[in-house]
Amino acid sequence: MEPPKVQQPGEGGLNVTLTIRLLMHGKEVGSIIGKKGETVKKMREEVSASGARINISEGNCPERIVTITGPTDAIFKAFAMIAYKFEEDIINSMSNSPATSKPPVTLRLVVPASQCGSLIGKGGSKIKEMRESTGAQVQVAGDMLPNSTERAVTISGAPEAIIQCVKQICVVMLESPPKGATIPYRPKPASTPVIFSGGQVRADPLGASTANLSLLLQHQPLPAYTIQGQYAIPHPDLCCPSYPPQQLTKLHQLAMQQTPFNPLGQTTPAFPGLDASNQASTHELTIPNDAA
Fold it and tell me: pTM for the whole thing?
């Protein structure tokens, strides 16, 4: 049995509750939140009167998910506010730029992969129709987002074109509900934050290479410790300012030669092919008392 036809958006719109998820970069989210949260507060007040909610995912991630839930009319209103805010940002950025042509506003929807076929249509007919009737550019990603069953749908154009395109996408999504279970995309931090002395927090990836370590040691301000593999290596300029350069070099080399600690209760060698009895080694390093 075919799903019931959904009324096309028009005067009075669609009285159906729907959830739309947007994928945004940190800078875009910052624009939506605004100074002291004033922008998102205003947006929430305007759409909440229509029964809609705007939620922004938490976490120190390069990407965030903005979820808009409510009647479709309220969703369209929220999209309009977001699209016009992004256009305002583009105009402001052009005031200090030599560029003469205005870039389009771009939004990325996160859509269950099982609904993307309906958005594309047979032979691409539906997506072509949306492009021609709204003037917006629509692209459906070929691959699913990591660890999910969702794809990104990118819409670019003028705010008016984007709003009309979102209306048509909502109609398709309501007419063709997702098939099976959907595993939602959840952005993950790009690296693990490391807390250094003095309360500094720095997101250096665990398992950085020796080359990366050399780069890290050049950054300012300098951390007290740098993570290398499974080691926290003291940074000499902060921990031991009186170390002679030759001893610092040897200390660094010794740290690189050590084998990782086994997890508690694990008796197998950390590296295949190495005998456990040969893993322990002792190094003696003489340092001045004042340096110690």
Answer: 0.61
